[in-house]
């Protein structure tokens, strides 16, 4: 996307169809026996947790057998998909809604069990279903390149590019960082190649789409009703492209532009709302005041606090905070003996997904500004426990296997990407996580057995979809939802004037009413509707801080 070279590479990949794709003449499902679902009890521990969080109806689980390789009709090898169903609140459900919560690589079973909001938002008259996408399961086709979490943390922390890149907007520095990161990523890719030989080719979005349609077949339902969040919107768009005649009602929430996902190098537009979100977070903190926000003081202003944070980033880049020995914890994502600005930027981006965790970041910053290492470490512990981990190496396994057009390890490509990204965000620096993922993709050894090669300019006028986007989404900005809606005739975009990643992060009765009406009756509001959240950000920060301040 960023250079002519990449566009040419993409064009070449479209024209030259790999042999493995020629076995599938269309995107119709291959002729295989209909899968069978034998529902039983779910993991008791998960169910107890779900009930504490608001689960009120029965949860059932099942395993479904599908082809390991949908493109090889001669093979009898199979894959087992783990599925969960939350029963509707009515005796005779209207059918099922399948949900994917993103990633790629997120945990579908656990997330659905512990997220009762989705039953409320869909009206309670459908069974809700989710599943473990390929690569994410603990039991089947697991994408894991390491033997322990500690090994994985060490690999993440030892990436030399993090120390060169973080906070830098200098293109030469980015090129140097790329060269270091490329060497580290090549070693990572070689390791994964040795451990994922029987996994790597069989994960990817096209096969995930086919697994979903296999679930629909097993349920004896003609059409797919679907709610996809974040990467789940890419999966949803792919489903709509591959199986247009089998689409029922689709909700795409926190839109990741599918063409960007498949074809671009960095996707700098992903971060375009991050700085505005952080500014609004600081303003809400000031509004909450010292009693409601740990960073606020009696005479502080939002502009002054924001500048203090920017100065803190600069300071940590050259003078990292050394953790006292008793606070070092190598089992945690921020494992290490010190805190630099890369780690703090990572906290900022991760925590910005969920407004109910903003107080954690604000408490950490407050402790750091005051030189209170213990308070900062307490916030760190809460931050680590509140961030959702992607399963193993499912993220690079799926993401990189999908992206044939961005296998370009040359420094000049990184420089072009840096030029596009450098003016997008101050908080995100140069996007160390994006760069690490891109370097890994550049050296990744596996290609997904199947890729969707069709268009995403879909005619949805006969069967319109519902598109949702938050005003302040840190990684899937509203503009992505707007672009998708503009390409899909008849589909409607609803904006939530709220914070976080996806509408569930900042609940709104307005959103719930619209989603319920759509799934139950197919009704859509007029375009350009803006919903307000149920609770202001200042109130969320205040209540969240009051609940935990004695723990820090």
Automatic annotation (TrEMBL):
Residues 204-255 form the AB hydrolase-1 domain. Keywords: Hydrolase, Signal. Pfam families: Abhydrolase_1 (PF00561), Abhydrolase_4 (PF08386). Gene3D superfamilies: alpha/beta hydrolase. It comes from the Eukaryota. InterPro entries: AB_hydrolase_1 (IPR000073), AB_hydrolase_fold (IPR029058), Pept_S33_TAP-like_C (IPR013595), Serine_prot/Carboxylest_S33 (IPR051601). Belongs to the peptidase S33 family. This is Ase.
């Amino acid at each position: 996307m960023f250079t002519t070279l990449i566009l040419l590479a993409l064009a070449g990949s479209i024209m030259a169809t790999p042999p493995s794709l020629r076995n599938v003449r269309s995107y119709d499902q291959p002729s295989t026996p209909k899968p069978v679902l034998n529902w039983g009890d779910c993991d008791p521990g998960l169910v107890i947790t779900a009930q504490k969080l608001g689960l009120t109806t029965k949860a059932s689980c099942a395993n479904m057998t599908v082809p390991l390789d949908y493109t090889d009709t001669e093979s009898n090898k199979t894959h087992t998909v783990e599925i969960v169903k939350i029963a509707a609140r009515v005796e005779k459900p209207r059918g099922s809604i399948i949900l994917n919560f993103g990633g790629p690589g997120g945990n579908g079973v656990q997330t659905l069990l512990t997220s009762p909001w989705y039953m409320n938002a869909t009206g309670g008259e459908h069974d809700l279903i989710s599943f473990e996408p390929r690569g994410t399961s603990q039991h089947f086709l697991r994408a894991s390149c390491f033997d322990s979490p500690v090994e994985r943390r060490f690999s993440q922390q030892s990436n030399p590019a993090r120390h060169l890149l973080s906070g830098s907007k200098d293109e030469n520095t980015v090129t140097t960082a790329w060269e270091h990161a490329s060497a580290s990523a090549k070693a990572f890719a070689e390791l994964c190649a040795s451990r994922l030989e029987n996994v790597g080719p069989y994960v990817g979005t096209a096969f995930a789409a086919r697994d979903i349609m296999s679930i629909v077949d097993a349920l004896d339902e003609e059409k797919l009703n679907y709610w996809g969040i974040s990467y789940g919107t890419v999966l949803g768009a792919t489903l709509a492209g591959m199986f247009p005649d089998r689409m029922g009602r689709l909700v795409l929430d926190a839109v990741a532009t599918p063409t960007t996902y498949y074809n671009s190098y960095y996707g700098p537009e992903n971060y375009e709302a991050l700085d505005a979100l952080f500014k609004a977070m600081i303003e809400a903190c000031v509004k909450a005041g010292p009693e409601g926000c740990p960073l606020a003081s009696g005479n502080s202003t939002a502009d002054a606090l924001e500048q203090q944070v920017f100065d803190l980033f600069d300071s940590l880049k050259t003078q990292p905070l050394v953790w006292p020995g008793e606070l070092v914890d190598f089992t945690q994502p921020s494992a290490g003996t010190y805190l630099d600005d890369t780690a703090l930027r990572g906290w900022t981006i991760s925590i910005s997904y969920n407004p109910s965790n903003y107080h954690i970041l604000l408490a950490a910053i407050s402790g750091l500004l005051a030189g209170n290492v213990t308070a900062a470490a307490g916030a760190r512990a809460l931050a680590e426990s509140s961030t959702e981990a992607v399963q193993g190496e499912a993220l690079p396994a799926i993401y990189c296997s999908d992206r044939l057009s961005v296998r370009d390890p040359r420094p000049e490509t990184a420089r072009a990407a840096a030029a596009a990204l450098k003016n997008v965000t101050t908080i995100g620096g140069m996007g160390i996580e994006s760069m690490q993922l891109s370097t890994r993709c550049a050296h990744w050894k596996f290609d997904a057995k199947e890729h969707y090669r069709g268009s995403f300019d879909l005619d949805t006028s006969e069967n319109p979809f519902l598109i949702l986007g938050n005003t302040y989404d840190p990684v899937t900005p509203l503009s992505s939802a707007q672009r998708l809606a503009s390409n899909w005739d008849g589909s409607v975009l609803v904006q939530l004037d709220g914070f976080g990643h996806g509408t569930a992060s900042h609940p709104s009765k307005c959103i719930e009413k619209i989603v319920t009406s759509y799934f139950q009756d197919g009704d859509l509001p007029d375009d350009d509707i803006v919903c307000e959240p149920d609770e202001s950000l200042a109130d969320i920060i205040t209540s969240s801080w009051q609940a935990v301040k004695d723990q820090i």
